[in-house]
Amino acid sequence: MRFIFRLRPIPLITTILVVWLGLALGNWQAHRALEKEALEHQLTLRESVPPVQMSGDLIVDDKVEYRRLQVKGQFVRDWPLYLDNRAYKGMAGFYVLMPFKIAHSSNYVLVARGWVARDHLDRTKIPKLTTPEGEIELEGIAVKSVGKLFMLGKSAVLIHPGDILQNVTLAGFAAQTRWQLQPFYLQQSNAVNDGLVRDWPRPSLDIDRHRGYRVTWYSLALMAAIFYLATGWKGENDLTKITE
Q1: Nearest to 116 by CA among 144, 148, 92, 142
Q2: Could you give the CA distance from residue 138 to residue 200 in angstroms, rounded to a whole number?
Q3: Binning pLDDT at 50, 70 and 90, where does residue 151 land?
Q4: Which of 33, 108, 186, 238 could disulfide-pair with 210, CB 3.0 to 4.6 Å?
């Protein structure tokens, strides 16, 4: 019996759309994995360079990200912010942010001080912080973001000391306080005996997940094409019954 491939317009269009979607999403996941590999390589290289002493001048160098920096000044102790839903080793908690006034300057840098566990009974309970007093020296890495969580709708415009937030932007914080901020966060790395965890996530953290998703989407595209081709072949007798 001779087999004939039957062209079916609607299943063909559906298959093309599924294949296109699978390839597009697979390519996006592959691109994200490559981006994170490049960021990890950049971070590794810049970590090996001695830290740069940061003055009070605003830094406009685009290559400052992932550079190790040292800065002298003091924390604005009455302006803590808490970024909610930041997990560490499976535990819920906050990232603690606090502005740091740079010595001999009117400029500030917003410091990501570290992670602290959240009260498991009352999520609005603010943990007690130990904040160094007076002038100190901090060391950390310049980052353009401390992570952004997906949110429905617009986040609140007003920011107050002690707020628990999902996200915060440098522009929003600067507009609220009217302070001149460095255009990056300082992700603190040195210990100052404050009990905060500074095991910051690496850019390469989710690379394997992106690679896994890439395989999943490519497999979906391949299976859709195979299914369409496999079900399109019909014997002459079957075609005769369909057309009768």
Answers
A1: 92
A2: 16
A3: low
A4: 33
